[in-house]
Write the structure tokens for this entry.
Amino acid sequence: MDPFHNCYAYHSAYKLNPRAMRQAAKHFVGIHDFTSFANAAHNDRERSPVKKITRFDVTEMGAILQLEVEGTGFLYRQVRNMVALLLQVGKEALPPDIVPKIIAARERKELARVALSAPPHGLYLMSVNYDEEILKPPEGPECLLVSGYRI
């Protein structure tokens, strides 16, 4: 790996099978209860574990594998835990069809038996997209315009 990118990527000591990782990643796409992939966080107690993953790509870029996940929201450490499972599949330690089994278990300990959380190396928030309707200010008499601001 290029030494200038060393800080910006996770380096696997194992040869990874990108085809198997792509097969496994497809199982994440859709609306699922991701309880098995969330680490406990004090602020997640009230949030729904049901999330929608719209895309999970595994792209080969020379010797680098780029994993991109897109969704409508994520639980605490959900992405790191999904990547950890994909790394196990990529090492061929687990089959790609393990993903739906772990999702269906809805227990974090099921994932913990087969994969540890992936380190944060190379994990970046690329962009945040909002539906335009959410960004519109509310209408009505309760919204007063004061000095160019609605309050």
Summary: The chain is about 25% helix and 20% strand. The chain has one domain: 6-124.
